[in-house]
Protein 1
Amino acid sequence: MHKFTLPRLVISAQKGGAGKTLFALGLVAALKKKGHWVIPFKKGPDYIDAGWLSLAAGHPCYNLDPFFMSQETILSSFLGHASPEGISVIEGNRGLLDGVDSQGSCSTAQLARVLKAPVILVLDSTKVTRSLAAFVKGCQVIEKDLFFGGVILNQIVRLRHEKIITESIEKYTDLKVLGILPRLKNFSFPMRHLGLLPWQEHGEGEEVVEKLARVVEENVDLDAVERLAHEAVPLSGAPLRWPAVQPVVKIGVLRDEAFQFYYPENLMALESLGAELVYIDALRERTLPSGLHALYIGGGFPETQGEALADNLSLRQELREALEEGLPAYAECGGLMYLGRRIFWRGKSFDMVGVLPIDFAVHERPQGHGYVQATVIKPNPFYPVGTKLKGHEFHYSCPVNVKENAISLVLKLEKGHGFAQKLDGVVYRNIFGAYTHVHVLGQPLWAKALVEAAFKRKEGFKEDLREVVWRPESLMLGYCQTKI
């Protein structure tokens, strides 16, 4: 087993909303400006923060999640994307110690332990001084085997405020304060649904990232941060590799301001199994690309783009006709909403594709939020009955005016809310739509099923896609070599 020297850092905090995303974005952008190759990662099932990190780095951001993935898979995925020539920046979620139980399972601390990465703590310093030293010391006591590398103080107002906290932390712990984030005036980071506004909708995303880079450059010891990243110990393991194959089917992927939520690995897996991905702008393209064998419609906020989606009548009609004729489609959350009849939001109604006999009402509070554990209980185009799924959901919409005898709900949820009554997974013809999002490294069958459905759709296909193989030593995706 090989050893890899990979500069890396985990950015965490004492709680959600403490400023770790602002610091992570500023740090990534500042390191990039210095000429570093920065590879961003996001802990947890997050698309929006990951999108901003990708924008800041000019490089795809990859998700690492102990709930979806085994420790072996996390390590192999990280080794497959990180580089000794670059600096990997891994942004945590919530507080460092916060997981799914009192033991901190699936926490950022657990991820940092798997990756043996130095941890920088971002601390919200609002209305607090010496007490922050107790928090830092407590983290060191509870997580004795973590490599704590330093502290960033956020929301600093005055020099005296900074001085008291810095002296307290450096007196009671062995950690250094590496810098601060001052309370930013005339700076507003638009928020929506418990998090940041997606950069695709912001309009000035690059300007925001540049401003955060300047804040970090002016207030953080970047040289010390770089040294810390290079102090990370070597990692042993087998990198995950994605084989390059000749594409033999075409899968349409809706990707625009309305549909943004795609894990890079999900798209890479489809390509590694023989799919050519054809990206479709549902807001502007008036017709479907020719020769599609399946569709993948990810999540997003179709309600915010409802008028543009509704106005694109020709594309909606083509989609409905193709889906009624049996075109396979896998739709997640926002994609599920788009395939319904209408979306109701803030007193307005927007017509959607209409292939599913369901309307969707968007509320001001979450209707489902968190991890999902589900079992497939009925036949469907993608998963065998009995298949176990781990995923996540985050939706403010709920189904209304459902024509129940026209659809089938095929997922029974042990954890999560889903469509209704602990059920999810709407099936109609060759459509599978769910509020549940899946990651291919947690459910490799997902990619195989979608590509296989595309193969079966393609005229003249005679054989089944062979099994996806996840070898423990390489976690390499198998792929179809059938000649068509």
Protein 2
Amino acid sequence: MKYDILFYKSRKTSYCEKALKRKLSEIKFNSNRIIAQVTPMNLGETLCESLTLCNLVVIVGGFSKNDDENLLTVLSRALSSAGLTLNNIRKLKGAFVDGYIIKYNKQMILALPDNPSEIEFLLSETFLDYLKSV
């Protein structure tokens, strides 16, 4: 399966990219595109485009600020306008920072913190098995 990586207001991008690719290659997933965005509008446009190309889009970063541009706030607005509910969202319990998976039909958005060790932790063997099954 192909996936896009969207970096949103993130740090340590090359380390996060390596951790993500290492974990997802274990289940034969391959990256399609890697794009960095810094505004909610650009993130939304790129996310929509990515979802037309891939069934999995991974957003890395954007958790650190508590303002209108925080990733959770941006995704919350987008999901409510798309008619998705809490039934479409699962929290991934991290060691220090949680991640999220949003699933709708065959498409998924995986939101992860911009910390390579946290990415490694969140993408456990159990979670990778889940990804393979959907």
Protein 3
Amino acid sequence: MHESPHGVTIGALAAAAGVGVETIRYYQRRRLLPEPARARGGVRRYGPADVARVRFVKSAQRTGFSLDEIAQLLQLEDGAQCAQARAIAAHRLLDVRRRMADLQRIEAALAELVGRCADPRSRVACPLIASLQQAA
């Protein structure tokens, strides 16, 4: 990021953080990123801390945190409330484990249905369709 003494534009911020300009604006609406005052010429200028903040948000999203959870983590960013950050992460971990269990059940059901489709002894035209129709 080639920063002028007055900061960079929203486009340069977005490029440096690896996101689109609309993502920056969305984060500002969600109050995840402060919206700086307009400098002379009516252009907002951003600094390295803004790039770091956007990268933090994206990293947290990739880890599975919701934007609401990320907002909570940003309030704890000084690192002094590690127990609170841990509680947020523990809640996210529990949710991920629940979703994984759901996906494993879905995988088993689909594998069984796909297996039925391959069974030449089946008495219906398509066992998968028949099973789904019965479940509805």
Protein 4
Amino acid sequence: MPDKKHTAFSGRLVIVGFGSIGQGVLPLLLRHIDMHPDQIAVITAEPRGEEVASEYGVRFVEAALTPDNYRTVLDGWLGRGDFLLNVSVDVSSVALIELCREKEALYLDTCTEPWPGFYTDPDLPPAARSNYALRESALALRVGGTGVLPPGPTAVLTHGANPGLVSHFVKQALLDIARDADPETATETPTDRVGWGRLAERLGVKVIHIAERDTQVAAIPKDPGEFVNTWSIDGFFSEGSQPAELGWGTHERHFPADARKHDFGSQAAIYLLRPGAATRVRSWTPLEGPYLGFLITHGESISIADYLTLRDGEAVRYRPTCHYAYHPCDDAVLSLHELAGKNWRLQSRKRLMMAEISKGADELGVLLMGPRKGAYWYGSRLTIEEARLVAPHNNATSLQVTAAVLAGVVWAIEHPRRGIVEPEDMDFGRILEIAGPYLGDVVGVYGDWTPLADRESLFPEDLDRDDPWQFKNIRVV
């Protein structure tokens, strides 16, 4: 892997949290950003990862950030021109963004995270525990909550693999479909959200799945009472416990019985009165073929749908349905099954699969459905062997995240005064250029799959075959 320096950074870099993503991104930051290990400090709630920090010569501070102490702990580490990279759980993104703005420091996170207890607080209604609400709370930090990007230190929201990288995949996929639909006509790359929305509308895109199948297998099987996963167990448990959420398209004519709309914000999404980890949806990837994924809530389901929305005055003219369709590794599926059987009480033992992975890949991409030529999947196929070859302290899943974090950090350093931005606001070509060498095979594949394929072979169903892209035809209870 070439050690190309994408940019230089002279400030201090504070990494909050040092689980699989923090440990995996550290060597990439040092490889591709011209900076010295002395400029980096890790602040984390547990000793896990201290040996990795020592390996690279960066300072390691074991301190759990809380609402009462985060300002005191971070005060001596952050100043004008520094960078806070938030890859933690249970530390409020909004609080850290506000602190970075006061300090004139740059910021990036991989999801909009709340303080502990938020996801499973029985006193909070489902709408308040949603990613929709978390996103609105972060966007409200923009001047007047208007969505205008004011001058100020760049704060990049939700820039991991997904949310994050997949938003850039969507833009590349739209250009690919446009090129293939009319090869003789050069398609100009849109320059704003209206242009991207018009392109998606013109191409007939009705549904976008973030379609992911993780086939990594460990030499050590899952034990009863153990939650096993290829990335953060706490993070997966938290988002799986939130309501299932999806961007809600204008073509939809069926409204699920347990669906609810929000009474504030962009109105780009709905939520269901059930956890995402208990909601399955049909989807498709080129290598796996048809599969049942979990409709886990993710920020990109809302931000992509919102970004591509077109309006005629106050009326919404066009918006695609957008949601995650996640099939984690098989041991994680077993872990979820056991978790649900215990009424969503997390197992006492947790194991992050890393060195024990013996084979498999993570196939992560976006599936755009509705265009005349058929469904189009664009994304990354990364095997565990490829991941180990190009980056230490990573598996296939974590490397897709850490490559996107690297790209987002570089972009923020190159654009230090953009204010609060989401992935859709960034230069997708630059992000894919930086992350690409770590993503294995990045491909676009057409398929003739629809959610109605092979349906009704055993039992009759109430389906609308005139419009297979309705959520009615996609969901599986």
